[in-house]
Amino acid sequence: MPFQQITVTEFQELLKDQSIHIIDIRDPASYSDGHIENALNINQDNIEQFIQDSDLDKPLVVCCYHGNSSQGAAEFMNQRGFKTTYSLVGGFEEYRNQVS
Questions:
Q1: What are φ and ψ of residue 81, in 5° steps?
Q2: What is the pLDDT of residue 61?
Q3: Residue 21's beta-bridge partner residues?
Q4: Cα 24 to the chain's mean position, in Å?
Q5: What residues are annotated to the active site?
Q6: pLDDT tens for each residue of 29-82
Q7: Which pTM does this prediction carry?
Q8: How far apart (Å, rounded) are the C-alpha atoms in residues 70 and 36?
Q9: What is the domain partition of the chain in residue ranges?
Q10: Which of 81, 84, 68, 71 is nearest to 21 (CA)?
Q11: Which class would CATH give 4-99?
Q12: Phi-psi bin for 80: left (phi > 0), alpha (psi -120 to 50), beta?
């Protein structure tokens, strides 16, 4: 099944219901300035290790700046074996606007 789009509201509901992986693909400085709780900053240097260490049956939510780059990353992670992958609509900016 290809990746799906998930809104911030749907994401928050998903967090309540089950254990999930959250990855943030923004640059390290942006991640350091603020990120979703429990999100891991993933890049080319650590992505393979993350995939090896992850439970591929757990849903995976990918976050970027505005929800564009995360779509390709979610598709990639789906192809690498994650059964359920989501791209966060609006990215971290939308998350920050709705949650803070």
A1: 120, -10
A2: 98
A3: 60
A4: 5
A5: 64
A6: 999 999 999 999 999 999 999 999 999 999 999 999 999 999 999 999 999 999
A7: 0.95
A8: 14
A9: 4-99
A10: 84
A11: alpha beta
A12: alpha
